[in-house]
């Protein structure tokens, strides 16, 4: 068999569309040269044909590799308080309008939180994410966090990310003082689409919390969810808003349309949709930590490894009210890619 008959699938794609590789590599060159892409260019990334997605990921990997090499950081999520939330976020099984059967309990006792911290450390996680369901923390919950965080940090080599809902500046200052490293508060979608998924608080409320976190001297962790009926323009707007806020860590979730929530039945995402979104977020936020988050097992399925060519972190284990895949599968996936788990932040972004 001669060389003319043994072309690889990659070369077939390049022959079918010889400008595809050059187009994405030119975008990567633009970003690597320090020139941000435009909203129009980001929108074009989300419209990439399926047969060009591998070329897109290859170009995006060059950006990821510059800032994070082949490292992957692991995060461990702990639902410290479940259910009982007065908000009406349509995607959430813990909201007041959800009929999904979820555990309902107030903030867990010290021993439970410490046991989860040990599990996070044992699984090689860099960050322990302490999450409560609430509009915002009450005084009892703030005090519990202030007491447990120093103990966790003294005993385990873990960063602490607190996800406690809306925060005042005074509350943010208290979290900083007790040793919290970063606070998670997702924008979830664009400002334009926000009223379609929540009415009990506003997009501006969420942005205000992030600014309070930033002004208190903590890192901001904020991302969103795709698959909630938004338009491509909404996803692009969210990516740029996060960039403009200077968010250090971006978790990108893919809607798990839980039965009993208003968004049950929304299953419009394909694996390629998820990969396009991850790539777009990498091009818009080149030196930010990008995490493949909830719903990856459902929507990326067997293409999960490809997501790590642009993202550089994962949650290991379960999510708030849904199960993730076994940690051993994540370790094997990372190993098979030739990547390595690290607790180092690599090149520190400058905000």
UniProtKB/TrEMBL annotation:
The keyword Glycoprotein does not apply. [4Fe-4S] cluster binds at residues 85, 89, 92. Residues 70-296 form the Radical SAM core domain. Transmembrane segments: none annotated. GO terms for biological process: biotin biosynthetic process. It catalyses: (4R,5S)-dethiobiotin + (sulfur carrier)-SH + 2 reduced [2Fe-2S]-[ferredoxin] + 2 S-adenosyl-L-methionine = (sulfur carrier)-H + biotin + 2 5'-deoxyadenosine + 2 L-methionine + 2 oxidized [2Fe-2S]-[ferredoxin]. Pfam families: BATS, Radical_SAM. Its EC number is 2.8.1.6. [2Fe-2S] cluster binds at residues 129, 161, 221, 291. PROSITE patterns: RADICAL_SAM (PS51918). Pathway: Cofactor biosynthesis; biotin biosynthesis; biotin from 7,8-diaminononanoate: step 2/2. Binds 1 [2Fe-2S] cluster. The cluster is coordinated with 3 cysteines and 1 arginine. Binds 1 [4Fe-4S] cluster. The cluster is coordinated with 3 cysteines and an exchangeable S-adenosyl-L-methionine. Its cofactor is [2Fe-2S] cluster; [4Fe-4S] cluster. Keywords: 2Fe-2S, 4Fe-4S, Biotin biosynthesis, Iron, Iron-sulfur, Metal-binding, S-adenosyl-L-methionine, Transferase. GO terms for molecular function: 2 iron, 2 sulfur cluster binding; 4 iron, 4 sulfur cluster binding; biotin synthase activity; iron ion binding. Homodimer. PANTHER family: BIOTIN SYNTHASE, BIOTIN SYNTHASE, MITOCHONDRIAL. Catalyzes the conversion of dethiobiotin (DTB) to biotin by the insertion of a sulfur atom into dethiobiotin via a radical-based mechanism. Belongs to the radical SAM superfamily. Biotin synthase family. This is Biotin synthase. It comes from Rubripirellula obstinata. The gene is bioB.
